[in-house]
Amino acid sequence: MSLNHVRPWRDIYRRKSRQIMVGNVPVGGDAPIAVQTMTNTLTTDVAGTIAQVQAAAEAGADIVRISVPDEASSKALKEIVRESPVPIVADIHFHYRRGIEAAEAGAACLRINPGNIGDEKRVKEVIKAAQDHNCSIRIGVNAGSLEKHLLEKYGEPCPEAMVESGLEHIRILQDNDFHEFKISVKASDVFLSAAAYQGIAEATDAPIHLGITEAGGLVSGTIKSAIGLGNLLWMGIGDTIRVSLSADPVEEVKVGFEILKSLGLRHRGVNIISCPSCARQGFNVIKTVEELEKRLEHIKTPMSLSIIGCVVNGPGEALMTDVGFTGGGAGSGMVYLAGKASHKMSNDQMIDHIVEEVEKKAAELDAAKEAAE
Fold first, then answer.
1. What CA–CA distance (Å, rounded) separates 132 from 23?
2. Contact predicate 100/126, CB 8 Å
3. Contacts with 57 (C-beta within 8 Å, 6 or more apart), sequence order
4. Residue range 272-323, pLDDT digits in tens
């Protein structure tokens, strides 16, 4: 639950769900919403896959998913799991044996798509492997691979069919006394996804993994995911998220965190508030923000920075940020610290100076947090 009683219009009441563990990461209940991504290297390229997992973890990923399409990938997974700094979810499709092998290889969670893994007997064997090796399971319902009998019943992929698919497979897990599971009901269509997620949220207390599947490229996929995931999160639905982009997995993590940060659900790194710039700007806002985003990527401490081109909104925005810079013309601008005007700085030196001030403020915040613990 994210509450701000001073400003109740910002309150988000999270749906109550059971909590499970994905490795050492709690999912559901009152745990922070976890950010996930997925590698796009060949799993058999162990070094390349490990490097991608580590880059995603450095960007903030809590959990990383890896596809296990064949036996060679199952063997590679064991070494990848051993080197990974975060829990690994094994993505299983079509062959139930891969699920058993992934559990044996140390995966923290098995993602199975009930529509293509086989009959109930095979699903039960995967469940047994998960129980034996302390794995959780994600039931991954997808509009593009619904079971034949549901398509015949409903005529096309629809929210009701996706929810029914999910509940059928929840029943299988529960009938086998397995309860460490979460569920997703993804579609590439935002409307279909949102309706299916609302339906499954009402029908079960299982943790929910959010995603708009096959969302698209960096720009279009980010927008589609922000609309779909943002609205669901705003309603309090969602315990883990993955932004599915045709892009570097690190970009998925960045976008996921930005969606959560915009709703006040997770805080990590520098939140830059900047204007789009116009003829009033006292310095090149766009280039400045681009440079600052790169140079401040190493900051993990939650804090805010305002970069505003002129004095129309600059002072007001700076009042609410940890560090701020407002353009004033004549080749310089005003630096704000903790919401107060502090000193002037020339435009040609201000990027280095802002980086220094942000690093200094981050160190202060970290020290204060450590002293309070």
1. 14
2. yes
3. 64, 84, 85, 86
4. 999 999 999 999 999 999 999 999 999 999 999 999 999 999 999 999 999 9
Q: Which amino acid, one-letter code, is at 136?
A: S
Q: Do the bridges between strand 20-22 and strand 25-27 make them parallel or antiparallel, or are there none, so unpaired? A: antiparallel
According to DSSP, the residues that pair with 104 across neighbouring strands are: none
Predicted local confidence at residue 6, as pLDDT: 75
Residue 333, both tokens: 């601008």
Spatial distance between the Cα atoms of 324 and 339, rounded to a whole number of angstroms: 8
Q: What is the 3-state secondary structure (H, E, C) of 28-84?
A: CCCCCCEEEEECCCCCCCHHHHHHHHHHHHHHCCCEEEEECCCHHHHHHHHHHHHHC
8 Å CB contact between 75 and 269: no
Residues 110, 139 contacting (CB under 8 angstroms): no
CA–CA distance, 114 with 93 (Å, rounded to integer): 9
pLDDT digits (tens, 9 = 90+) for 57-101: 999 999 999 999 999 999 999 999 999 999 999 999 888 999 999
Contact 178, 131 (CB under 8 A): yes
In what order do the strands lie in the sheet containing 303-308? Answer: 270-274, 303-308, 323-327, 332-337, 340-346
Contact 46, 84 (CB under 8 A): no
């639905």: which residue's tokens? 237
HSE (side-chain half, CA atoms, 13 Å) at 38? 20
Amino acid symbol at 346: S
Token digits of residue 239: 């315990």
In tens, the pLDDT along 96-122 reads 999 999 999 999 999 997 667 777 788
Which residue, chain included where needed, has tokens 């988000």? 12
Give, to the nearest 10 degrees, the angle between helix 71-83 and helix 46-59. 50
Amino acid residing at 29: G
Q: Bridge-partner residues for 25, per DSSP?
A: 22
Helix or strand or coil: residue 150?
helix
